[in-house]
């Protein structure tokens, strides 16, 4: 039995909770189609607080969430996406190119909340523990926080879309952040227009889920 101060009790996670947790993971979708209703501020803050519980190398908490509300900055981010997306479309040929052009790959115009998530690579928090041989652990820690935020958002009825078709240096310039900050994610957040258990890219014929994804490799 774990010893714990009076203010702390060790939770018990039963089969019912685990089933609900499985539903949360299964229904976490990459959302691109948002209603324009304002996001409840308390819900957004609660999701950010839960993301802050994510593990980080050396307990360094290197994630930096930046809310992008200014219309001109949002317009510059959208322009970056449009440049990158047009270029990406040229990399495919024939039917795959046409399919790519029909995909909706962002919700930048509709989403009421934009969050740029950076890794502060100059942080002194954690005193360098755990990243001497793997400095990329700082960025991996930020990815963990993004996933934590994403799952929390799903639990609050919010949708999240991760936009990766962007110019990271351009985003940094537009948002005027520190040189040592590295862009990890640009998130669109809002209430989804529709709910689907299957991923959008699977639904529209781009790529199905791998049947081998859960296989454990033994060595």
Automatic annotation (TrEMBL):
GO terms for molecular function: 5,6-dimethylbenzimidazole synthase activity. The keyword Mitochondrion does not apply. Keywords: Oxidoreductase. Residues 26-191 form the Nitroreductase domain. InterPro entries: BluB, Nitroreductase, Nitroreductase-like, Nitroreductase/BluB. Its EC number is 1.13.11.79. It is an enzyme of class 1 (oxidoreductase). NCBIfam families: BluB. This is 5,6-dimethylbenzimidazole synthase. The gene is bluB.
